[in-house]
């Protein structure tokens, strides 16, 4: 995303000094782009998301260029014009035609009477879009006007300046917790080793702190006087798609220094209010067929806790996780240790540490048989990281870490007795418990190199020299990566550790293997020389060389054990998913976790339910592993494709044979790659869509977006994607509806979404309540629009037929223009905003109601044609009954009816009929509905009085027609009453028949609710103590349960 709007945040101790480099725009499909001109910005931004165009231009261009004072205003105006043109072309495509015709002498209506309503409608639409754009502009203004301290050479001091006025090459000072919406090069920080931590959550959605190291040659630049003569040149790579790496050279004092960064990404969650970011997708919330969800930070809290570990083949850690308990219950096992981890008592509560085991806590590890291995294990956790300790005023040490896992491991080591308390660029210092003397001693490890973690390496290592002068490589990483790098002597605990890791994965825990090796001095010197040469090179293959050298030294490791960290489920996730599943919504979870972890998290959160059969598609098979060892890539690909194809076909046959059973599909990332093959993708999607739950393990962000696109295109139904991090943006943008978790993970997922919620559990209410209501409201609104306009339009048609199509208008031209603007519009708005067929409580109690929207039961051609027929019937009744009722003498003075009186009488009947039809269609009345419905009718009479008082040159046929002609005549009022009642009879008869013989689900629930309320009152009078039980048992009678069961069965038949 644009760094000038979604800024990075400084998290170092106090302040750091930096050099402004420039501004980039990150496009999800095309990578990093330098924004130069308005037209270039337009090319790189999706036209559908035009508000993002405003964001880029008003921020990046304001900082890059001086003379663009009108940029924001121009963008907002263009946005309004574009969106208003869209609304005109879709909502009133026929309006320009009569407007043009009204200027001709042949038109029966005046031009102002046609133009004014069109202007009102378009003006309201533009005002709505303008309000939304103004809110976005306020966000831009806030970001652009933030202050930063900029170095002023004339006064040799830092002065405050707005970010929008900043220029490339200026020196800036950023203090702790401040934002810097620009690319800067770190020159120095208040720490001795020139390190600072940056939080990039507003860039990439990640809360992990990323360590930035200043070059040693600039790390001593602290005094403002020293900046006076500072001169430097930077030569770096061109803008590219690599958002998380940077290669360049700093030329300072005739020397050159390598510049590079590498970032690891993780997510984290917070609680913020929900909000709608668009008003154009409300009805689609009630028609969601498939939900595609991220896991970490979306279903889970992304708050890591150290709960278990395996050291020297021995498992440590008491208690069971939620996923572990759910799995044991599913298997029907007799649990000997049912206590949840959180229920164990401890002396104190430590964030990130939920480990309980008396064998190694409180210094008891010194009495264990494998105490040497335990000591090495926790030394690795305490020293192998990039964490920076910060001492608070109270003396407490807090850790600034690149990821939640990193901080968790350091905290765990501290609680066991290996406290990390100080680091700089050359050393790491620990307080350790000496197992021999039982006292705390200080140990200093000389830090030689850090081989950082990356998603490709899946591991990190540090090379240190300990106080005994031993040269050690300490490593931790994914078990699959560490195990393949073990020496023969280092595999002593491998089998036991694998068993424990498998058990931890089944418990839904995140695992990591821990190992080390002792290095030979000569070997290290040779390797270091080559490594430093590779790091300082600026060639295209630099990263490849660095990776190869890191891989060379990270060999012949000795396994120490493995860690197990819990990422807990968010509150209410299980109940929410259960409700969504009962509503008939298919749920897909796309996660990067292992298959075992994902499956057991699935059971814990009700994705996988009891009685649901699993279909597992995987390439973790002996024959595939044998081919992998031989390294024949072509053979591996061919066999893998055939294997996935066979598993897909077996799954389809299984689903076809047992259509009455729910199925859950689990597929890993490698298998998913082959399932996306053009020869298999249709079969795979056919199988997946027929399953109630799909879990895709080890999925990459690109795969998430591709899967979302496939689900949307294959099903042809509404899809919803929900995520919390930057890696979910592609998925959110591909789905019909994108929902962002609005938490501490940053704003990128939220900014790419249509709706923002604070927790996953709010999705239940968003869809089952508001989605259901919005679908019914919009459906009713559209059908009612058909009805009221056909009713009105066909009275004109019958009159024109009666006058032989002579062109004589039935109504005054201002009657025509005001019909949809003043006399029938407000009740429709009230319906679309306030109507509720059932209460929120009953929507949640009966999730199957949501299927009305998924199956589009309330907006199909049968219903549309039914409402059109009702409108046609109403027009016939109104016209013919009116013309046949006001015959003969109409007024006391003996005057008969003329066409102006006929028009007013007919128009009055139309206004009364369509508004009363609206009153009959509304399920939930508020005072606003009453005001709008009866106020619209009253407004018609007020209009007649006011407009009729205008001189006849302007009011024409309406001149005093109500006051002098219609109001004094009893025939006018009797005719209105007769016609309106007659026009309403067809709808009343149909609704009575439908409720009695063919009730819809919401009709049954409403009837039963009234019965329950009546029964409750009766029971409360006689047996108050049993009223609650009676209410619960009577709320769902047998007929409703049968109806719901039949809906479930029909849903399964339709899917199969």
Q: Indicate the overall shape.
A: elongated
Give the percentage of residues in beta strands.
15-25%
Enumerate the strands of the largest sheet in spatial order, edge to edge or round the barrel: 15-34-33-32-16-28-31-30-29
- Give the biggest beta sheet: 9 strands, mixed
Structural class: alpha+beta
Distance between termini? 42 Å
Gyration radius from CA atoms, angstroms: 36 Å
Proportion of helical residues: 40-55%
Biased composition (Basic and acidic residues): 1012-1029
Domain P-type ATPase C-terminal: 750-999
Keywords: ATP-binding, Magnesium, Membrane, Metal-binding, Nucleotide-binding, Translocase, Transmembrane, Transmembrane helix
InterPro entries: ATPase_P-typ_cyto_dom_N (IPR023299), ATPase_P-typ_P_site (IPR018303), ATPase_P-typ_TM_dom_sf (IPR023298), ATPase_P-typ_transduc_dom_A_sf (IPR008250), HAD-like_sf (IPR036412), HAD_sf (IPR023214), P-type_ATPase_IV (IPR006539), P_typ_ATPase (IPR001757)
